[in-house]
């Protein structure tokens, strides 16, 4: 009988550990990024993973110093790696559909952020971005570090005023 109770306790503990590992904190501030589609973890309505600025700032920050077709001179962008965010929610798929506040969208192959240090920039030249400055989020590729990225194709995937990602 004692072994049955111990076994039940082990099974219950494993169940709790599995349940807790699939929990995700809810945002306490304004949601600035919603991720839907093929994800394991969620904290919002309809199975979405929602992030506020504090949640994105909790990821390790990465910096990209680069030139862009839309800015003057070299600019410093800072934010979490896209792959870190996707890994944290158990995203699986082949494509991200990135959607801006004005409903412009672009498809980004998952291989882009697996191969390159693509970030979701939250800061530009040490300042938080706003809608007026192409924020609050902007997908940035390390163009100046990889010559093969300096093409219209990769520039077109650098969506600013990002609000949502759909994992397909």
Note down, in words, how this protein is organized:
The chain has helices spanning 2-21, 53-57, 82-88, 110-115, 152-156, and strands at 31-37, 49-52, 61-66, 75-80, 95-100, 105-109, 119-121, 123-124, 127-128, 138-140, 162-167. The protein is of the alpha+beta class and 168 residues long. The protein has a single domain (26-167), classed as Sulfite Oxidase, Chain A, domain 2, CATH 3.90.420. A 5-stranded mixed beta sheet has the order 2-1-11-5-6.
Question: Which bin fits the share of residues in helices?
Answer: 25-40%
CA distance, first residue to last residue = 49 Å
CATH class, anyone?
Alpha Beta
Q: Main β-sheet: number of strands, strand sense, barrel status?
A: 5 strands, mixed
Portion of residues in beta strands equals: 25-35%
Q: What's the total count of β strands? A: 11
- Uncertain residue segments: 4-22
Shape: globular
CATH superfamily: Oxidoreductase, molybdopterin-binding domain
**If you average the pLDDT, what whole number results?**
89
**Second-tier CATH architecture:** Alpha-Beta Complex
Class of secondary structure makeup: alpha+beta
Radius of gyration: 19 Å
CATH topology: Sulfite Oxidase, Chain A, domain 2
The total number of structural domains is 1
Count every helix, treating DSSP H or I runs of 4 or more residues as helices. Answer: 5
Going across the biggest sheet, name each strand in turn: 2-1-11-5-6
- What is the string of helix and strand elements? HEEHEEHEEHEEEEHE
